[in-house]
Amino acid sequence: MDSRTVALIRTTFKSVAAEDDGPEKLARSFYAILFTDYPQVRDFFPAALDAQRDRLVKAIAYVVDRLEEPERLLPFLAQLGRDHRKYGVVAEHYAAVCQSLKSALAAYAGTELWTDEVDRAWDEGINIIANTMIGAAEQETTPPVWTGTVIEHREVLRNLAVVRLRLDQPMQYAAGQYMSVQIPSRPRMWRYLSPAIPANANGELEFHIRGVTGGWVSPAMVGHTRVGEQWLIGSPLGGLGVPRNTRRKLLMVGCGTGIAPLRAQLMAMTARRSNPKVDVFVGGHYPCDLYDLEVLSQLACANKWLTVHPVTESNENPWWHFDNGEEPPEFPGLEPRKVGQIGKIVAGHGSWDDRDVQIVGAPSMVQTTKFRLMAAGTPTENIRHDPLF
Ligand SMILES: Cc1cc2nc3c(=O)[nH]c(=O)nc-3n(C[C@H](O)[C@H](O)[C@H](O)COP(=O)(O)OP(=O)(O)OC[C@H]3O[C@@H](n4cnc5c(N)ncnc54)[C@H](O)[C@@H]3O)c2cc1C
Predict the structure, then answer these.
(1) Looking at residue 117, what is its pLDDT?
(2) In sequence order, what are the residues at sequence separation of 6 or more whose Cβ sits closer than 8 angstroms to the Cβ of residue 80?
(3) What's the total number of domains in the chain?
(4) Domain range for residue 56?
(5) What atom of ligand 1 comes closest to residue 386's alpha carbon?
(6) In DSSP terms, which residues pair with 178 in a beta bridge?
(7) Which of 78, 196, 282, 296 lies at a CB distance of 3.0 to 4.6 Å from 260, suitable for a disulfide?
(8) pLDDT tens digits, residue range 182-223?
(9) 217 lines ligand 1 (CB under 6 A)
(10) Structure confidence at residue 295 as a pLDDT band (50, 70, 90)
């Protein structure tokens, strides 16, 4: 795609995104056109579309921002295409979505902005996206969806559960990747979760799940999951993973359940003969939020290359935390816990300019930590994180 085509696509999309309610209006218009012109696709979507609308616009923005980086964008789209097989979508559904998106954008942009040249630019962009997704889906030989039976559900914190599943057949995924998950009580509401252990021959998965207040799905996963129920799991996604280069040092920063994909990578690294130095900063609001310190302590004690730095925003547990009045357990092999904002603490250690960096957690924490590190001198191209939608 040439730079003029990219510029035309970006300008029209930015004109939508720049307005306060632009993304919301665009998404509403897109779904209205799609379901009116192609009612047969309605069943692919959940009944309530509010969370879906937000994700749609963020996903388009993500792609539009990377149009000039095909080496990163095309593998991402191919993964998305393989994942979309779980809906049972075929080429004609892609055509319906593409046409509806273009109609919604054209209506929003108005005749002054939506010229013939802009129309052709969007055609070119949308075709590349759809063909990459369709091509990857058609070539894939793994199942479009896996079934996982819940074998354990443990609430490790108020509002945070560890769920273990056994898949009907093993799945190959790289430690650090994530996948979309659907639970029986929330049909068609797929949510991304990151396995906290590497892929294994028994097809076991472990997810760490925080219940988001007001969320449609995560509170049900945390509060109502029963052993024996069956979850559906889509194809693995994402570019985080253990680097092949065993000499390049690593910095990992994870908050809350963001520790899951980092811990999976650390576990995968323990199986290698040599590893570079790795510093992991694990964060939470309160000391009690650091629910996985025991495992991190075991990993740090057994592996000299690993240093784990616990960080919390508050030095005390909240009043509602029930602690039996006992002293909190001491875990060996960890650095002393620091108190403060995690991005500030990590950046306060230096520029980390010799490190490959991964940041995982809530979108606001990922952005803040990234900016702090960039300001401290970490080259942007060394910092990786998952898409924030
Ligand atoms: C790549 C990736 C990997 C992920 N891995 C995990 C994981 O391993 N474990 C895990 O628990 N979650 C993970 N998530 C988040 C998860 O996919 C859901 O977004 C989250 O559980 C909320 O879903 P929900 O249906 O409960 O909320 P929704 O109904 O989708 O959203 C309800 C409201 O909550 C807001 N919201 C959504 N997520 C958050 C959040 N994290 N913090 C604050 N507000 C939020 C929304 O903007 C919306 O306003 C991951 C997300 C991504 C993008």
Answers:
(1) 96
(2) 133, 237
(3) 3
(4) 3-139
(5) 1
(6) 237
(7) 196
(8) 999 999 999 999 999 999 999 999 999 999 999 999 999 999
(9) yes
(10) very high
